[in-house]
């Protein structure tokens, strides 16, 4: 009897782990992106709930994508995309995807919470975009080894860029970032132009460093199989830009010597 209870508990836990927890080594928390889904959440650089419908469309278009449709948002939700922030999506709807029911978000429901078609397009929300492809400025990268560089490198980068690179390698691997060139407008505190590195799949948790100026940053090694890079430039002054390489390596202790990949 006890055995069956244990088995049941195990099955329950496994089911729970599938619904909410690790998938390909990524904990489904605030953002979960997969190449197959290609749906992602963005907010304005001014912060949460600042985008009109027109601005929301421009944010997605800027990254080479479009507003996500309800079906795309739902498909992403089914693989664990959970964000507790309302955003515009296609056909001037506003809503957000909920995987795990919670009192503070989604009224305890699971699914795409849809506020419906908004007649007032001047309302301000976040946005859900769809873009299955990577492009020069950002993207979802799953290769074992890649060069990442500012758009137009080695020419100067443009003003007013926001680029996100979400790196996801295989479960059990880690990511080694190695900077090759670095020249980003310098200011105290790196408030104008900067490159942020996050040891996670979003730009909320796992902050690993902010870089500007022309010192070559040290190598950065992830703790898990995901990383996010965010490059932002303001409305004035640009510089030569940056180029870096990432390489995936096996996280098992017997495979710690991976330096030779970098040459
Ligand atoms: C539309 O929304 C904006 C922003 O919330 C608000 O300022 C404005 O009064 C609304 N317009 C109408 C007609 O309700
Ligand atoms: C790592 O591997 C490289 C190339 O195979 C070798 O030259 C180097 O000595 C190794 N380093 C360590 C610490 O084992």
Give a brief description:
The protein has 263 residues and is of the alpha+beta class. The chain is built from three helices and 17 strands. The chain has helices at residues 2-19, 53-62, 70-78, and strands spanning 22-23, 26-27, 39-42, 66-67, 87-89, 93-98, 111-117, 126-130, 139-141, 145-149, 162-168, 173-183, 194-198, 207-211, 220-221, 226-232, 241-250.
Structure commentary:
The chain has 263 residues and is an alpha+beta fold. The chain is 14% helix and 33% strand. It is built from 3 helices and 17 strands. Strands 3, 4, 5, 6, 7 and 8 form a 6-stranded mixed beta sheet that branches. A 5-stranded mixed beta sheet has the order 9-11-16-13-14, with no helix packed on it. It has a 4-stranded antiparallel beta sheet with strand order 10-17-12-15, with no helix packed on it. The N and C termini lie far apart (59 Å). Residues 9-36 and 259-263 have low confidence and may be disordered. One 2-acetamido-2-deoxy-beta-D-glucopyranose (NAG) is lined by residues 120, 122-123. One of its GO terms (cellular component) is extracellular space. GO terms for molecular function: hyaluronic acid binding; hydrolase activity.
Give the key terms.
alpha+beta; Mannose-Binding Protein A, Chain A; Jelly Rolls; 2 domains; six-stranded mixed β-sheet; 3 helices; 17 strands; 14% helix; disordered C terminus; binds 2-acetamido-2-deoxy-beta-D-glucopyranose
Structural class: alpha+beta
Q: Share of helix among residues?
A: 10-25%
Q: Count structural domains.
A: 2
The biggest sheet amounts to: 6 strands, mixed
- CATH domain fold name of the largest domain: Jelly Rolls
Intertermini distance: 59 Å
Q: What is the tally of helical segments?
A: 3
Uncertain runs: 9-36, 259-263
What multimeric state do the chains show? single chain
Q: Name the overall outline.
A: globular
């Amino acid at each position: 009897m006890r055995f069956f209870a244990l088995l049941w508990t195990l099955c329950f836990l496994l089911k729970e782990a599938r619904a909410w927890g690790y998938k390909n080594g990524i904990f489904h928390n605030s953002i979960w992106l997969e190449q197959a889904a290609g749906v992602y959440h963005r907010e304005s650089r001014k912060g949460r709930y600042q985008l009109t419908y027109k601005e929301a469309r421009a944010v997605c278009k800027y990254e080479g994508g479009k507003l996500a449709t309800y079906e795309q948002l739902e498909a992403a939700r089914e693989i664990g995309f959970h964000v507790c922030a309302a955003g515009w999506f296609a056909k001037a709807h506003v809503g957000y995807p909920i995987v795990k029911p919670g009192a503070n978000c989604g009224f305890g429901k699971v699914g795409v919470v849809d506020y419906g078609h908004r007649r007032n397009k001047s309302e301000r929300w976040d946005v859900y975009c769809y873009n299955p492809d990577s492009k020069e400025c950002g993207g979802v990268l799953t290769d074992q080894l890649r060069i990442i560089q500012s758009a137009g490198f080695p020419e100067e980068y443009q003003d007013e860029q926001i680029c996100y690179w979400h790196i996801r390698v295989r479960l059990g691997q880690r990511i080694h970032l190695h900077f090759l060139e670095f020249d980003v407008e310098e200011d105290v505190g790196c408030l104008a132009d900067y490159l942020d590195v996050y040891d996670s799949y979003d730009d909320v948790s796992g902050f690993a460093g902010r870089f500007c100026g022309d010192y070559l940053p040290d190598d950065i090694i992830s703790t898990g199989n995901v990383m996010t890079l965010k490059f932002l430039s303001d409305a004035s002054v640009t510089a030569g830009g940056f180029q870096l390489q990432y390489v995936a390596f096996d996280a098992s202790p017997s495979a710690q010597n991976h330096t030779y990949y970098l040459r």
